[in-house]
Amino acid sequence: MTITAFGTDGWRWLHEPAAWSATDGVVEATTRPDSDFWRTTHYGFIRDNGHVLGRDVEGDFTLTATFSGAYRDLYDQAGVMLRLDEENWVKTGIELVDGVRQLSAVVTRGVSDWSVVPLPAAPASVTLAVERRGDTVTVRYGLDGGEPATMLRLAYFPPDVGVLAGVMCASPDGSGFTARFEEVAFR
Question: What does the pLDDT look like over 61-101, one tens digit per residue?
Fold first, then answer.
């Protein structure tokens, strides 16, 4: 089923969340408990049941999204995801780690890696720009309405293949939380 969201058609859920709404260019989603995207590294498990509202996209593009969340439990997360398949993807956004909202990026090529950057304060919102060019994904961010100009991550991503690209949220350890996405666009 295709969904109209952010002023355009063609969106679809990969693992629909517990509840969601799409109105006036805003999507709110409430995650299911025990939802995540992760492959093996450190924890020894594979989870592929987080929530992505995405579009099928070919070639080079930049996806921008502004989001916020009512983060409360360890690893509650929201942001953006580019997904080739269950073993090749990039997710990036805010993740609650040890009670602190941190910028997070996970790149998975068979196994997941994870990096975080602590924020000086909990921003009201984050804007990400995830650019795919050739074999590279570059993640930039801005806080509280700021332009996404600061680079968080540059990573390899397989070129010349279509991907599911969109917004994501998950609650690996918590009971679920609500994330809000707005100003989501491709260029």
Answer: 999 999 999 999 999 999 999 999 999 999 999 999 999 99
**Cα-based angle 170, 74, 176 (whole degrees, multiple of 5):** 40
Whole-model pTM: value is 0.96
Residue 100: domain span = 3-24+31-174
Question: What's the rounded Cα separation, in Å, for the pair 15 and 115?
Answer: 24
User: Model confidence over 106-141: pLDDT tens digits?
Assistant: 999 999 999 999 987 889 999 999 999 999 999 999
In a domain, 185, yes or no: no
For 15-50, strand residue ranges (E) read: 19-23, 26-30, 37-39, 46-48
Dihedral, CA of residue 142, residue 34, residue 39 and residue 58, to nearest 10: -50
The reply to whether 162 falls in a domain is: yes
Distance (Å, rounded) from C-alpha 81 to C-alpha 168?
A: 6
For residue 118, what are the β-bridge partners? 102
